[in-house]
């Protein structure tokens, strides 16, 4: 079975195209939910993944591009049957959400 850590690590391959930092270190990923998908065919259990994501601003033009990156990245993970990206706006994103590694990468 997949873990939240594995999904979070995979999402480090997804970037906000306006900021040279992955969405995890940027602090855009608020929650990852994994649920067994009893309807998925096959012998190996599969899981549905839901990503609660925010953006740096509600008017961010990269919304569709970031969501597509997430969907494509998760589709390539064995054991994921379906993925959903849900936009959330509470709490509002702020630069304080950037990880220490992200701060180093951005030079702040």
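^ Assign residues to that structure.
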């Amino acid at each position: 079975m997949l873990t939240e850590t594995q999904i979070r690590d995979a999402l480090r391959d997804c970037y906000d195209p306006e900021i040279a930092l992955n969405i995890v270190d940027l602090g855009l990923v608020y929650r990852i939910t994994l649920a067994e998908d009893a309807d998925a065919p096959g012998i190996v259990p599969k899981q549905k993944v839901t990503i609660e994501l925010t953006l740096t601003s509600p008017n961010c033009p990269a919304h569709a591009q970031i969501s597509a990156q997430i969907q494509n990245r998760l589709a390539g993970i064995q054991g994921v049957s379906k993925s959903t990206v849900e936009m959330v706006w509470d709490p509002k994103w702020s630069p304080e959400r950037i990880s220490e590694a992200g701060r180093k990468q951005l030079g702040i």
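The radius of gyration is 14 Å.
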